[in-house]
Amino acid sequence: MSDPVAPRANPVVIATWPFGLPAAKVAWQTIAGGGTALDAVESGVVSCEDDPSVNSVGYGGLPDAEGEVTLDASIMDHRGACGAVACLSRIRNPVRVARCVMERTPHVMLVGDGARRFAVSYGFHESDLLTEESARRYRAWREGLAAAPRVPEAHDTIGMLAIDMGGTLAGACSTSGTPFKLPGRVGDSPIIGAGLFVAGGVGAASATGVGEEAIKGCGSFAVVENLRRGLPPAEAISLVLEEIARRRGDANTHISFIALRADGASAGRSLRADTGFRYALVEANGGSLIDAAGIY
Ligand code: SD4
Question: Could you tell me the pTM of the whole model?
Fold first, then answer.
């Protein structure tokens, strides 16, 4: 008697924000070519890091308060293997370095100058990550500071979650963090459980928005634990967002999550309806952007 064949989820890629759509399509090509979900999320996120028009990720990301671009990224597979880099400067593809940390070291996260030197030792090239456009915006911010205190601009992470042809889950995320942040500031994106979490056979989640909020509540881990308890993806996220609002005592911040359940069901949700958060979904019959409701 042969063993019953486990039902497999259809392959799918989801990613945060409209700029996640072309990146998710790159990831989809990897999956369609027989690649793993891990290879897919890496390839998709790399394409976003390389795009200078995305000023919140990789090359062309907005710098810190001293004018230096520092990057955070992480990657995780269905077995719980993971790697991350934080406050990494002069290396264009932090998600690749994160995967290298995952596969070539006994550690999970490398930061700052150590991360940069590790990357160089594995053949990554150093380059200036500031584009003319991001330098111009930095100068405008500095000049504005002298005139009047400014609210930081909106900032976005690419978070990407995928299921491959074999039904296996993986996720990755990458960001230049809050624009004009204090030098040394690390957000949620490189912190496993905060900006990204993957549990094989259960689901995956990733955060975008004010990273401090995702860190305080172990946001992505909490979303995945809600999936494990059987909640549908949208409710799994909403419970975590409600908890953030309860802890803060208000909903006056921007934080959003995407979630992908192991069977392929997905959702995106924001704390606030005025965030304008949308997420990209790519599957066999094409790709689209989906409006993610806000709960306040
Ligand atoms: C951070 N969550 O560093 C990232 C930045 C960002 O939408 O997403 N924003 O806090």
Answer: 0.95
